């Protein structure tokens, strides 16, 4: 696949952002679930930015607010206070319909469960969202994706005929098919063995390096963080640390320090 400059969003989308600009960000993000004695402050004044064409990990102990942060920045959940932005659009100003449209056109999702449609082929799964939106896939982009996924000979298979790792590669290709501005991955390797997990992480790394994608991944796994450009650490709903060019060793050290702190 040819190397390319940072991927402009799909032709229907907004103008490309300058290099280093934040594709998505949260400013003073606070999320409280419930009320009164049982209220849970899942996010407590979080300010973070996810720069374009970077692979960022969100780490932290169970219950620290990782998924909540991702869901609020991706427009799947709303904040109690503060604001989340995709590009320069403040999500809190959008109607439900506008939010759905923004998610559909600008954001890709990968979840721990692969969520493929069992009756469709690999190729149909990859282009499903585009087909539903009546949009023509960008052929060169799709070819590059399919080559990167390495499933060119499986395009007419159904998900049940693939291994878990292969199914997740299809799910990642599906998330990238519409050339979203940003891809959010929630524990994408959680259901995979370390070999298949490494393949998925390598694939997302290539999507960032070669296709200019922006990827944000929630993970518990220090090994997975080694594939990313930076790691943000949450604890009790707050950002407590950030690490550039993380390695499994530096991440483990940091987790240990945070645990002792
Ligand atoms: N819908 C909800 N209603 C009430 N409380 C919630 C809801 N979703 C999350 N929480 C609470 O908010 C806090 C943060 O949860 P969140 O799922 O964001 O953490 P996490 O870091 O992603 O955890 P894990 O690693 O276990 O997935 C937790 O205390 C959780 O119990």
Number of strands: 10
Estimate percent helicity: 25-40%
**Rg (CA only):** 18 Å
As a percent range, the share of strand residues is: 15-25%
Distance between the termini: 45 Å
Principal-axes shape call: globular
CATH H-tier superfamily? P-loop containing nucleotide triphosphate hydrolases
The topology string of helices and strands comes to EEEHEEHEHHHEHEHEEH
Biggest sheet strand order reads 6-7-8-3-9-10
Mean pLDDT figure:
89
CATH second-level architecture: 3-Layer(aba) Sandwich
For this structure, the quaternary state is single chain
CATH topology assignment? Rossmann fold
Give the total of domains: 1
Low-pLDDT windows of residues: 1-11
Q: Number of DSSP helices? A: 8
| Distinct ligands, ions and cofactors found in the model | adenosine-5'-triphosphate
Which CATH first-tier class would you pick? Alpha Beta
Structural class: alpha/beta
Main sheet characteristics:
6 strands, mixed
